[in-house]
Fold this protein.
Amino acid sequence: MSTHVDVFASGVGALQSRQALMVDAVDAMTVQAYLRASGFASDYTLQRSSTAIEQRWNFQPMAGQA
């Protein structure tokens, strides 16, 4: 088990050193599920700056919902 954690930690470190966008997107998944349940198709992108992570959303009514 220790080896698995070490490998995971080194993989995360490698991604961070490349400034890969690694965020917990639970909030975005929750919003997307709410929109879907409300009759909207949606997608989002995440953009990283030096001070924040910005979510940009696109959504439209699903077929038959307009």
About this structure: DSSP finds two helices and two strands in the chain. Confidence is low (pLDDT under 50) at residues 1-5.
